[in-house]
Amino acid sequence: MTNDETIDQLNKLIETCKDGEYGFRSSAEHCKSTDLKTIFMQRSQDCAKGARELQALVSRLGGKAEDDSSTTGALHRGWVAVVGTLSGYSDEQMLDECERGEDAAMDRYRDALKQPLPADVMSVVQAQYEGVKRNHDQIRTLRNQVRAAS
After folding, report:
1. How far apart are CA 73 and CA 20, in angstroms?
2. Which of 10, 14, 73, 143 satisfies CB 3.0 to 4.6 Å to 69 for a cystine?
3. CA distances from 70 to 28, 101, 125, 147, 150 (A)
């Protein structure tokens, strides 16, 4: 894999991290539960940290690091806002959308892990993928708890 291809792959993951950062923050703003607001804000901060880590790798490789979310992520957040406005924001709905976002993030990280990335880059991507899986599992568990309580 060329240096430019590695940078491109990392920039896609930076966009994914930014999608998560903005998505979790937006969900925190719209959910009712104080506990969920705290969890969503922590996940948002974790995603921001992941983006910074990847941006540092891109810079070290001599590239220009992405600093914004993807178009797809922005469209998804817009859709969530429209649906939330029409149906009323619920904690279950916010958890559903966060899980959907984490599904997309896991897919992007899996794709990246299939690439012949340099070993040091691969270890960072693998560690971040494990974090995405933990986020996904936590969100799914919380969503199931909210559904069971309703």
Report:
1. 8
2. 73
3. 20, 12, 18, 30, 34
Number of H helices, E strands in the chain: 5, 0
Location of structure tokens 């998804």: 76
pLDDT digits (tens, 9 = 90+) for 82-106: 555 555 678 988 898 889 889 999 9
The secondary structure of the chain in percent helix, strand, coil, rounded to multiples of 5, reads: 85, 0, 15
pTM higher than 0.85: yes
CATH of the domain at 119: 1.20.1260.10
Structure confidence at residue 136 (pLDDT): 94
Task: Select from 82, 59, 61, 76 the least CA-distant residue to 18.
Answer: 76
Structure tokens at 116: 């012949």
| Owning domain of residue 129 | 3-149
